[in-house]
Each structure stands twice: as C-alpha cells, then as structure tokens.
Amino acid sequence: MQLRPLRHVEKRPASVARRHEQDADAWSHGLKAQTEAKSMKVGFIGLGNVGGKLSGSLLRNGIDLTVHDLSSDLVEGFVAQGAKAAESPAQMMRDCDAVITCLPSPAASDAVMQEMLPEVGPGKIWMEMSTTDEAEVKRLGALVQGRGGAAVDCPVSGGCHRAATGNISIFAGCDRDTFERILPFLTTMGRRVLHTGELGSASVLKVLTNYLATANLITCAEALVTAKAAGMDLNTTYEAIKISSGTSFVHETESQVILNGSRDISFTMDLVKKDIGLFQDVADRAGVPLEINPVMIKIFEDGIARFGERELSPNIIKRLEEATGLDIRAPGFPAEMLDDEPEEPGYEVVPQGRSSWKLISTDGI
Asked: Which of 11, 21, 261, 274 sits most deeply, having the most CB atoms within 10 A of its CB?
C-alpha cells in the first residue's frame, strides 16, 4: 500500500503562505508515517470468521504478519500464504511492534493479555479488535500503558463479507499520535476509519451500532412475517422496503439470506446476546433507563433456549415462523452475502464540524 501524505482539513481562512506551510508539514508527516508503517511488524491473534478476513487483508497487502490461533489448521493456512507463526502470545508481543487481538469474548482477551503483558514495553502497541466491554478494554489498556505501551480499541462494523474485501468500517479509540501510527494498518483492513476519541470510546460505539443492527433484524423479521401473513408477495415486499424510508443496511443484507432460507451471515445468537448485553451495561453505567433493549435480550434468550446458542442469528425469525406456521422464503436471493464492491483505498472519516489530519492510503504498503 502506498500512502498519500497527511492532509489537513482547515475550516478557518488561512493565507497562501500558511497553506503552503501546512502542505509542507503534511507531506513530511505523511512520509514519516509511510516509513514507519513499512518497517513495523504486526501480530494477529484470532483467525476466526472476522479475524481471519482482517488478517488476510494485511497479508494480501504485504504487511510483515505473524499469526496465532488455537486452531493449528488456520495458522498453517496463513503460513502457506507467507505469514509467520508465533508459538505463543508472549512471543508475538516480544517480536512484533503491534499485536492485534480479535477474540470471541472479554475473558479470552484477558487470558491472552496476561500472557503478553510481561513482554509489553515502550513502543509496543496492543490493538483490540474484538467486540468487548468499554470498562474491560480500559482495564487491560491501563496495564499496557503502565508498562510503557500504547492501547487501542478498534472494533469493526459492516459484516463479514466486507471484512473479506477490506471494505469494512473500523472505529479506533486511542490518543491521536497512536492513531496516526496505526492508521496505515487500519486503512489496509478497512475502507472507512473513524477516530472515536480516547481508549474505550470505540467499544461504546461498536455495541451501540450492534444494538441498532439487532433492533433492525428483529423488526425486519416481524415485517416479513406480517407481510406473508397479509398475503403479500415477499419479493415485492423486499423491494418495497428497500426503496422506502423503512430500509436499512440490515434489511439490504440479512433480509436476503432470510428469504433465501440459509440465514447465514456467519454470526450466531450467543454473539448477539453478548453484544446487546454489553450495550445494556453501558446504558446501566450511564443511568439510562432503556426500554427496547431489555425486550430484545429476552427475545434472544428465548431464541437460544429454543434453537441453541450457536444458531445463526437471522434464524430469530423462526420464533415467528413457528408461531404462524409460515415459511418466510422467496426465490432469487443469495445464500450468503458477498461484497460486490472492489477493494478500495481506506481513508479516515472526519466527523462533521471538525478539522483533522487525514492519512489516505492508495494501493498497498
């Protein structure tokens, strides 16, 4: 990946001389970021549904990558493509400049961190890409920072199909200097990268967006079943929702695999329950008396009791299919979602009303 230099977005009037000075500073800053990125070694722990795709983007784009996973088969597959294998998380932290974790639970991240912590020191970066609790990532991050390292929570959003192509979105919570240091890697794994603030802020926004996605999934399920019960054609119903004010990312993706019957988005009911439970924890700590989320937790608890915790999450619709005796399927929809957009250069998303330095990647480090 080649990197264009950092560009400053300036809202206030500036003289031509000042703009030239900013451009020169930006160019110098960008070249420094390029040089550092090319020389850094990255470790990745957790090669599952999401982690395997994110680390694949790093490897595909020429990053010096070391991997570790409990599955030796997954590790061997990456080694065959040019990655190095680490014997342990401790060795990975010792040998790499930045170590990324993408694991199924806060407990798993904690276990890995306890192994890595003795090897953390100045210059080391821990990047937590798991969906986790704000308080937990802050706790583990404080341990890393206490030993002179830097910590980032940088979860992803947009579905496994976009993780596979490097077109997924990434939130990153950390200090600005650390963000600029890791941005070349983030823009390799994702298309849109948002600096959310300090450590922990990205995890809050991640579970917030997963809460919204879950609410969308439940309401799409109810809408599709109601349409079928009312005698509507489901292909027509899908298109009507898609072109209306009722559409959403979830409808345009998950409703398709629901109607196909596969219900396969590589995400399971236990993970949904975990995520909306984490959102509930954030709201409880903030003193927000939620009304919808507690109901959604009960819906997924019921789904898990009926179908099992590893049931695919879109099959939450089976509760209504069973209650009505209806089969919510229609012809012409895909069995799984594939990203039909080409892999594009990643870039930093700047919130409205703000100025920010931006590092824009082009075509490979």
From this structure: 274
Structure tokens belonging to residue 273: 């329950």
**What does the block give as tokens for 118?**
């003795």
pTM of the model as a whole: 0.86
Mean pLDDT along residues 123-149: 97
At 148, list the tokens: 């002179």
Q: How confident is the model at residue 33 (pLDDT cuts 50, 70, 90)?
A: low
How confident is the model at residue 164, as a pLDDT?
83
In degrees and rounded to multiples of 5, residue 230 shows phi and psi of -85, 5
Rounded CA separation 305/321 (Å):
16
Closest CA to 357 of 2, 1, 124, 32: 32
Is the Cα torsion angle 243, 247, 250, 256 positive or negative in sign? Answer: negative
**Per-residue pLDDT at 37:** 60
What is the b/e burial string over 14-24, where b = at least 16 CB atoms within 10 angstroms of the residue's CB?
Answer: eeeeeeeebee
The predicted pLDDT at position 38 comes to 59
Residue spans of alpha helices (H) in the chain: 16-39, 51-60, 72-80, 89-95, 106-116, 134-146, 160-165, 176-189, 201-229, 234-242, 249-260, 269-286, 292-307, 318-324
Burial class (CB in 10 A: 0-12, 13-18, 19+), 134: buried
Among the listed residues 328, 337, 149, the one whose alpha carbon sits nearest the alpha carbon of residue 234: 328
What SS3 class is residue 99?
strand
**Residues 85-102: what's their mean pLDDT?**
97
Residues 293-301 have a mean pLDDT of 98
Per-residue tokens: 58 = 């790093």
Instruction: Annotate 310-320 with b (16+ C-beta within 10 A) or e (fewer).
Output: ebbbbbbbbbb
Asked if 134 contacts 195 with a C-beta cutoff of 8 angstroms, the reply is no
pLDDT one-digit tens code per residue, 310-323: 999 999 999 999 99
Contacts of 74 (CB under 8 A, 6+ apart): 47, 48, 52, 67
